[in-house]
Specification:
Blueprint lengths: L5 E2 L6 H11 L3 E3 L7 H11 L7 E6 L6 H15 L4 E6 L9 H13 L3 E7 L3 H10 L6 E5 L7 H10 L2 E5 L11 H10 L3 H10 L4 E2 L6 H6 L10 H8 L19
Helix pairs in contact: 1-2, 2-3, 3-4, 5-6, 7-8
The chain binds NADP nicotinamide-adenine-dinucleotide phosphate.
NADP nicotinamide-adenine-dinucleotide phosphate binds next to α9.
Length: 261
């Protein structure tokens, strides 16, 4: 999984933006059935000429579709819209709030993998207890947890659980939906490094072994967010960024959210 992927939630002109991201070198695109933009992503992929094997495409099944037949229909609809025979990563978007038993959903997820509809499987927005249960109950190995993570949100417990359970961690809202980009301490650090704040924050994630999915509606920023490999943060700089964590730093907390760790 390329460590920088393009976030596409609520992106306007999605096809044009994905096309420019692919030109800039992105190979990892994050979408979801719920984002309603899979057809636009297909259009951009088709026009790009980039070979399918080079791409890493993630999609997700919405929490209202976690019963086995609905799950299968959602995956089929995603693949049709994306014009792909398989995705690279299929995620359960949120845990069920309608009491669908987790094993039923995980069986459907595993079936998508054994049926060749996805190369890897994972979950998003699970807490540690749910993750442990999911790893135990899933008939196929889970590979990824996708969850909110940025300098204002302490995810050290969840990150440690992922390492223990051998799951890759992918950060959504890696830029805190833009909130961290006005931070004076980050600004000072970024100036000293000769980088943008976004690049420093994404580098902080890279150096923790965390993949991230920055989103921008501006092609220049999309390209900028990929340029995080030519420099390194020292241990002190890493610690300084981690120290920005805030008690109320979480941004995404909808009604279907579990009890967070
Ligand atoms: N699994 C889930 O439940 C879940 C939940 C939330 C998000 N996600 C995924 O994660 C992706 C990213 O999260 P997000 O979209 O919430 O927020 P984000 O990537 O943390 O932040 C996006 C904001 O940052 C700004 N920005 C981006 N790059 C910038 C740069 N280089 N300089 C200045 N500003 C910059 C953008 O503004 P401009 O557009 O003006 O540049 C936008 O307002 C989503 O798009 C989605 O794919 C998944």
């Amino acid at each position: 999984m390329p460590v920088i992927g393009l976030g596409t939630w609520q992106v306007r002109n999605c096809a044009a933006l994905v096309a420019s991201a692919l030109r800039a070198g992105y190979r990892h695109i994050d979408t979801a059935r719920n984002y309603g933009n899979e057809a636009e992503i297909a259009e951009a992929i088709r026009a790009s000429g980039v070979r399918r094997e080079e791409l890493f495409i993630t999609t997700k099944v919405w929490h209202e579709d976690l019963r086995a037949p609905d799950f299968a229909r959602s995956v089929e609809a995603s693949l049709n819209a994306l014009q792909l025979s398989y995705v690279d990563l299929l995620l359960v978007h949120w845990p069920s709030i309608q009491g669908v038993p987790l094993p039923e959903t995980l069986k459907a997820l595993g079936k998508a993998k054994t049926g060749g509809l996805t190369r890897k499987i994972g979950v998003a927005n699970f807490n540690i207890a749910m993750l442990e249960e999911a790893v135990r109950a899933c008939p196929e190995p889970l590979a990824v947890l996708q969850a909110e993570y940025h300098p204002y949100l302490d995810q050290s417990k969840l990150l440690a659980a992922c390492r223990r359970l051998r799951l890759a961690f992918t950060a959504y809202c890696p830029l805190g939906r833009g909130r961290v980009l006005a931070d004076p301490k980050l600004e000072k650090l970024a100036r000293a490094k000769g980088k943008s704040i976004a690049q420093v924050v994404l580098r902080w994630l890279v150096q923790q072994g965390v993949a991230s999915l920055p989103r921008s509606s501006q092609a220049g920023r999309v390209a900028e967010n990929l340029e995080v490999f030519g420099f390194e943060l020292t241990a002190d700089e890493m610690a300084e960024i981690s120290s920005l964590r805030q008690r109320n730093g979480r941004i995404v907390d909808p009604p279907m959210a579990p009890a967070w760790d």
